[in-house]
Amino acid sequence: MFSLPLKTRFALLSLVVSVLLIGIKFYAWLLTRSQAVLTDALESIINVVASAFALYSIYLASLPRDENHPYGHGKIEYLSVGFEGGLILMAGVYIFYSALQSLLHPHAIERPDWGMALLFATALVNLGTGFLLVRAGREHHSPTLVGDGQHLYLDAVSTLVSCVALLLVVFTGNVLYDSLAALVLGVFIVVNGYRMVRRSVSGLMDEADTATVQHVVAELQEHREPAWIDVHNLRVVRYGANMHIDCHVTMPYYFSLEQTHDQVHRIEELVDQEFDVQVEMFVHADPCNFSACSHCHMPDCPVRQHAFSQEIPWTLANVVKNERHQLVEVE
């Protein structure tokens, strides 16, 4: 196990913990016959299936690029999150239906003290494991680990609600608290399952990562050089832990191919050093025209047709557009 990659170790830890805890929860249900405990145990089945899929997806995501996957296999991590969210949604719907039936036909709760003790122990384990997975996922930019850890947080909350329900049954003698808790958990699980599916779709559909794009724009603006007359059509796409960036940069049209290549390389190095993940950046160099003179402060430009007027600041709003910036029209 310790020779495995770090992300794989955490995914394997999640799977092992899920398998152990599901056995404890079903034993707690056999002792108590509580609907809330059964709800929690059924939701934990999803943990096992999801953790197994997460482990496989992390293995796939670690594979190098090949002819069929020129951008690598990182997208599988978003699919893993969506798969887990879909399972949670289905479980939540069933749990909600089962809780309604229990509310209409309540039954006695047996040995709630033992049930509470076992469930509380599993909640602590899930909270600790979930914390480790989320932290590792964010450090290594793995959506799968973050999603799996957040699912364990969700499972811990479900377990604690079940404990509270059993406690209320003990002190009040009213078994309806058990069914009401299961009903609340059903709604809670459905909402969180939907959020996971939404996050998965966002990643698979390459929804804009505004924070990352803003970071790239800010770095380009802060370190902009005279030869970088204009930046536009900037796009950032994530492939699991890796990132692909492309943009258009307007440069003096009289630059040689070697000069242009050097400037492109400077831009790529500037962006690459700002991120602790693998960044693949493509810069398309556009030749300038005379409409750019008014916002170009290239020193000793031999072809300038307009005096420099003002610099156009690069912002999130204007850099992502597929159009050059200009202050005056070509005469």
TrEMBL record:
Organism of this sequence: Hymenobacter swuensis DY53
Domain annotation Cation efflux protein transmembrane: ranges: 12-205
GO CC, alphabetical: plasma membrane
Similarity comment text for this entry: Belongs to the cation diffusion facilitator (CDF) transporter (TC 2.A.4) family.
Protein name: Uncharacterized protein
GO molecular function, one term: ferrous iron transmembrane transporter activity
One of the GO biological process terms: intracellular zinc ion homeostasis
InterPro entries the UniProt entry points to: Cation_efflux, Cation_efflux_CTD, Cation_efflux_CTD_sf, Cation_efflux_TM, Cation_efflux_TMD_sf, CDF_Transporter
Membrane topology qualifier: Multi-pass membrane protein
Transmembrane segments: 12-32, 44-64, 76-97, 117-136, 152-173, 179-197
Domain of life: Bacteria
Signal peptide, first to last residue: none
Keywords: Membrane, Transmembrane, Transmembrane helix, Transport
Compartment list: Membrane
Cation efflux protein cytoplasmic domain sequence ranges: 211-288
